[in-house]
């Protein structure tokens, strides 16, 4: 067995994969959030529909999306494996060196499950509809675009979906709070000189990203 296979079959190797994929997914969340802000523009969904078409047709974005799908799958599978191992041994986070046990670190499996359930519903409602659903179209400047905005707007007019979205973002907040800091620790990038900064950035991301994501459906529901 090669050194790579040995590393990936070890607990530490799997934690490194979790850390790297987690940091990549945080980057995706920031990009995705910036695109979602276009839902709040008072233009009937034009900017968002143009953005959605670009994200699903641009060759570079499409290639990156395959990496994203793979990252999601690897992150979820590795999370399940680590959760099972932790249950059999003792609860640990991304890095066994962290002896401080927080609620979020002890419940990463539950938080991940909440996010996963939401993700399945979210992808079915929007991603699947954008690619294969029979949604309507809008024409801007002579070019036809799928009207994904109307699909999103209809979903965010349903109270149950807004509540589900908000609850999932609370789960994401705790997930990010523990995951960001632990990822740096697993990768050996923690240092007494920078730990305060890492912790502060982690707090900021854990609060700001989910809060802004949750604000969008709430604002659209209240319009």
From TrEMBL:
<dbReference type="InterPro" id="IPR034804">
    <property type="entry name" value="SQR/QFR_C/D"/>
</dbReference>
<keyword id="KW-0472">Membrane</keyword>
<dbReference type="GO" id="GO:0016020">
    <property type="term" value="C:membrane"/>
</dbReference>
<protein>
    <submittedName>
        <fullName>Succinate dehydrogenase cytochrome b subunit</fullName>
    </submittedName>
</protein>
<keyword id="KW-1133">Transmembrane helix</keyword>
<feature type="transmembrane region" description="Helical">
    <location>
        <begin position="159"/>
        <end position="180"/>
    </location>
</feature>
<feature type="transmembrane region" description="Helical">
    <location>
        <begin position="12"/>
        <end position="33"/>
    </location>
</feature>
<feature type="transmembrane region" description="Helical">
    <location>
        <begin position="201"/>
        <end position="222"/>
    </location>
</feature>
<keyword id="KW-0812">Transmembrane</keyword>
<dbReference type="InterPro" id="IPR011138">
    <property type="entry name" value="Cytochrome_b-558"/>
</dbReference>
<feature type="transmembrane region" description="Helical">
    <location>
        <begin position="105"/>
        <end position="123"/>
    </location>
</feature>
<feature type="transmembrane region" description="Helical">
    <location>
        <begin position="66"/>
        <end position="84"/>
    </location>
</feature>
